[in-house]
Design goal:
The protein contains 11 helices and 7 strands. It has about 290 residues and is α/β, with parallel strands linked by helices. It has a single domain, classed as 3-Layer(aba) Sandwich (Rossmann fold), CATH 3.40.50.720. Helix 2 packs parallel to helix 4, helix 3 packs parallel to helix 5 and helix 7 packs antiparallel against helix 11. The longest helix has 21 residues.
């Protein structure tokens, strides 16, 4: 029998790539998204091993319905891939509290809801894998990504605690940290940043410069298959790593972040984003 895995946020980008890749690798995939119509392109792929399922990780009733559907199919989940997420961008001083709540409701509390729904059956079976999609931003926090980076930093801590709690039950937990990936995810981030450029004020020039740098990241990055391959490794390696980085080229930046003093990292990032010049400009032209 094929191992079964539930993937959230599977309607596009990384989640869709994971669904297709894992199905081709022999998994039975439950591909979840808020709206079923967004999953139509997955129907019939990989020998019919992909089952679209409606699920909103911020709505407990849809999670319960999805888990019932899987149970009614006679399936005990082997894997859970917590991929669904959103990104809130902007200066911390200016980002509305409601946007912070939306960020954490999806990226952090959504994972907790899914774990609480899926883990009992894995624990009782004495086996299973949980893969949380974090971000390089969870370790290297750029300016104007405070809400997003902090939510992904929270996912790092959550994953570590969960891994240690579930190990005695045979359930293994890993974090996959993507860097820039060539998906439409960056487009909505660009739109959010533009709002703070248009409204002017103290941060407008700095946000404009950061936005210019950020705009080149996703379009020139590898496709989501590199993340799907890391997820597959986390689900199948006999001794899975606590963390996988995709693409692997980002490992160097993470190592340097661990080794360099924060003051040096701050200066490097200010130079890369042009924020040292932005600050001087603002002081001269209040």
């Amino acid at each position: 029998m094929h191992q079964s895995v539930l993937i959230t946020g599977a309607s596009s980008g990384i989640g869709e790539a994971c669904a297709v890749h894992l199905a081709h690798k022999g998994f039975r995939v439950y591909a979840a998204a808020r709206r079923l119509e967004k999953l139509k392109d997955l129907e019939g792929l990989a020998g019919g091993r992909i089952t679209p399922i409606a699920l909103d990780i911020t709505a407990p009733d849809t999670i319960e319905a999805a888990m019932k559907k899987i149970a009614d199919d006679g399936v005990t989940l082997f894997g859970l891939v917590n991929n669904a997420g959103v990104s809130v961008m902007g200066p911390i001083e200016k980002t509305p509290i409601d946007e912070w709540r939306r960020q954490y409701e999806t990226n952090v509390f959504g994972i907790v809801r899914m774990v609480q729904a899926a883990l009992p059956q894995m624990r009782e079976a004495g086996r299973g894998r949980i893969v949380n999609i974090g971000s390089v931003a969870g370790r290297i926090a750029a300016p104007f990504q405070g809400a997003y980076a902090s939510s992904k930093h929270a996912v790092e801590g959550l994953t570590d605690s969960l891994r240690r709690e579930t190990a005695p039950f045979g359930v293994k937990v890993s974090l996959v940290r993507p860097g820039f990936i060539n998906t439409p995810f960056g487009e909505q981030e660009q739109d959010q940043l533009q709002k703070y450029v248009d409204e002017g004020g103290a941060y407008a020039d700095a946000v404009r410069k950061f936005k210019h740098w950020h705009a080149k990241g996703h379009p020139t990055a590898p496709g989501p298959i590199v993340v799907a391959e890391a997820v597959h490794a986390a689900l199948t390696d006999e001794h899975p790593h606590s963390r996988y980085t995709a693409p692997i080229s980002n490992v160097g930046s993470l190592v340097m972040r661990n080794l360099l003093p924060s003051a040096v990292t701050d200066r490097v990032m200010a130079r890369v984003f042009g924020l040292d010049a932005a600050g001087k400009t603002h002081k001269q032209n209040p």
